[in-house]
Design goal:
The protein is an alpha/beta fold. The protein is built from 10 helices and 17 strands. The longest helix has 24 residues. Pfam families: CMAS.
């Protein structure tokens, strides 16, 4: 039902996302930018769930993360999923955390704290936030302070859940935090829930014999009724950015999806031509330059749960000027004729290609260094131009080594 990172909170669709995976990664990226993350900072995730935020922040922003949760299953799954990244998962009550962090985030946990614990929650966050740090609170909220929890949701889905109101959050923050920013994108939860429902319907035949009709009706009602509540604007989704004493000169919200991720410095590049950023609707691959390419490709494939296999080696074909828009469209219409093809005189290095069904992709060559080039997956096939290389109905690969058979490249298939 969820995306590949198991993100069980609202996605951000307003940035142009077309799929659930894109909406969730856009949301995670937006959180990272609202927190102004940068390499070397420490991030505390209160109620870290399946670890999606910390995994994304560590991969793309170079931060060190600590997550607290009371779920053994989630902690075990996330620790295995993000093995090798600077992330620590702790089975710990958030109220016992006492060390300082540069940034704090809590995504989808405050709804489960209960109004009697709102102030305690904020006191813990205040205690753990370094002076000059930022705290992002992501929570569903209600319009009326004294509204009671929905009895059906309380019984079947979220026992003891209690949505806060604006006033209740303000009361809890009183004297502790300055509210730097409040962002309401509750309408996007409607789209998120409908995407979850579509995934649930698609997967249901595999589970119906085990779970039965009662579960199907319960879960469908939960997803659809909540989507209706967000669509009617009866409940909201808020992201608060809080600081202890106020950001000098004021805080500027970042909401638009960023293009550039964390890039290694020139000194860090060593033998890798450049940072490799492999993006599709279903997977993102980033390679840190100080690591060996084949090992990192395999590591990221494992983390993203992408099946990998060796693929055919294909040399450069003709000139990149042959890849006009008509040529590209022709290849897309006739994928069987161009099963494995890559071309581009501008690259001047061997490349590896492979089909990956259901994904249209484009790659382009970038800086040459140490006898090799990195290929970066581009945004859309419609942006094809003379300096790009297109793989029909699929994508590709990744790094081409010149005269180095000891480093086989790999293709990644979903």
């Amino acid at each position: 039902m969820l995306d590949g990172r198991m993100t069980y909170t609202c996605g951000y669709w307003s940035g142009g996302a077309r799929t659930l995976q894109e909406a969730q990664e856009t949301k995670l990226d937006m959180i990272c930018r609202k927190l102004e993350l940068k390499p070397g900072l420490r991030l505390l995730d209160i109620g870290c769930g399946w670890g999606s935020l910390m995994g994304f922040a560590a991969e793309h922003y170079g931060v060190r993360c600590v997550g607290v949760t009371i779920s053994k299953e989630q902690a075990a799954w996330a620790a295995e999923r993000y093995k090798g990244l600077p992330i620590e998962f702790r089975l710990q009550d958030y109220r016992t955390v006492s060390e300082k962090f540069d940034r704090i985030a809590s995504v989808g946990m405050f709804e489960h704290v209960g109004r009697k614990n709102h102030r305690t929650y904020m006191e813990v966050a205040h205690r753990c936030l370094a002076d000059g740090g930022l705290f992002l609170l992501h929570t569903i909220g209600k319009n009326i302070r004294d509204a009671t929890p929905d009895p059906w949701i309380d019984k079947y889905i979220f026992p003891n859940g209690d949505l806060p109101s604006l006033g209740q959050i303000g009361d809890a923050c009183d004297g502790l935090f300055v509210a730097e920013d409040l962002h309401n994108f509750g309408a996007d939860y409607d789209k998120t829930l409908m995407a979850w429902h579509a995934n649930f319907e698609h997967a249901w035949p595999r589970f119906k014999d085990r779970l039965g009709e009662h579960f199907y009706r319960m879960w469908s009602y939960y997803l659809l009724s909540c989507a209706g509540a967000f669509r009617a604007r009866d409940i909201q989704l808020w992201q608060w950015v809080l600081s202890k004493k106020g950001v000098p000169g004021g805080y500027q919200r970042a909401t638009q999806p960023s293009i550039a991720r964390y890039r290694p410095s020139i000194e860090e590049t060593l033998t890798l031509a450049s940072h490799l950023d492999f993006q599709t609707a279903l997977a993102r691959l980033e390679v840190r330059a100080e690591d060996r390419v084949p090992r990192l490709l395999a590591l990221r494939a494992d983390v993203e749960q992408i099946q990998q296999r060796p693929v055919e080696h294909v040399g450069p074909v003709g000139s990149s000027h042959q890849l006009g828009r008509c040529k590209v469209a022709d290849r897309l219409r006739r994928p069987q004729k161009h099963r494995d093809f890559i071309a581009g005189g501008g690259l001047r290095v061997p490349c590896v290609v492979a089909r990956m069904p259901h994904i249209l992709a484009m790659i382009r060559g970038v800086e040459k260094m140490a006898g090799m080039r990195a290929l970066i997956l581009h945004e859309t096939v419609q942006q094809a131009c003379n300096d790009t290389v297109v793989i029909e109905q699929g994508v590709v690969v990744l790094v081409a080594h010149r005269n180095d058979p000891g480093h086989p490249s790999r293709a990644f298939h979903l």
